[in-house]
Amino acid sequence: MTADLGGHPPRFRLGEGAAAVTVVVKNGAADPGSIPAEAAGLRWLAVPGGPPLPDVLGHDDEWLVSSWVPAGRPTEDAAGELGRRLAVLHAAGADAFGAPPPGGPAQAWIGHARMRNVGHDGPWHEWFVQDRVLPYLRAARDRGELDPAGAAAIDRVCARIDRLAGPDEPPARLHGDLWSGNVLWSADTAWLIDPAAHGGHRESDLAMLDLFGLPRLDRVLAGYAGAAADAGTPLAEGWRDRIPLHQLFPLLVHTVLFGGGYAGRAVAAARRLA
């Protein structure tokens, strides 16, 4: 066995010659429950026709061993294919908004922040406020990361959520933490890694892709929109206007974890919805 400690998490080469395989080993002891949640998410998201994900080769409560994906560069074709495959993944659905993957814990994680995964009958906007906005808004306010005026701006969005949320949709099968760092461009396609999987609104994954500058995002969204329309489930009118709404959750998570300018970005997103 040989180890490459240059990346994070580390990868190891097991065996010799043609039979050798490279695996990634991840430790989640600092975030209890995160490894079972991630393993369940990787398995749940691996739907036929969806984006490829690393194989779960083994795990326990603290360690995850998964297949290694060699890195490549983003291309126009891979971006369009990612969008089409992401539409297939979302269409696979979930039992309820907030529902965890089968076998996944109710107490999950997004990054190093706790995240509650408990099914909610809906509508989506009620669950989103209850389990995805208010817990992190309260934490950020209690820690002094959000001033009263900023917190009030987000509270006003919560009070108007029924008018901002758009048409009702069934629960989608979400990656849940789909920022650009969790899209791994390989030789001829794009893989998804490090999920915070749950049932939610498909626009949330698209808004997350937009948040931190995914390469070739326009091609990804065009591929997604075309595939969704072909399947008879086009994106609802005004979905681009709702991007700030769906970005409130990850921005508040980042505010709780890192502070700094994320609080200002969360407040700016809320005020764009006024």
UniProtKB/TrEMBL annotation:
<comment type="similarity">
    <text>Belongs to the fructosamine kinase family.</text>
</comment>
<dbReference type="InterPro" id="IPR011009">
    <property type="entry name" value="Kinase-like_dom_sf"/>
</dbReference>
<dbReference type="GO" id="GO:0016301">
    <property type="term" value="F:kinase activity"/>
</dbReference>
<keyword id="KW-0418">Kinase</keyword>
<dbReference type="InterPro" id="IPR016477">
    <property type="entry name" value="Fructo-/Ketosamine-3-kinase"/>
</dbReference>
<protein>
    <submittedName>
        <fullName>Fructosamine kinase family protein</fullName>
    </submittedName>
</protein>
<dbReference type="Pfam" id="PF03881">
    <property type="entry name" value="Fructosamin_kin"/>
</dbReference>
<keyword id="KW-0808">Transferase</keyword>
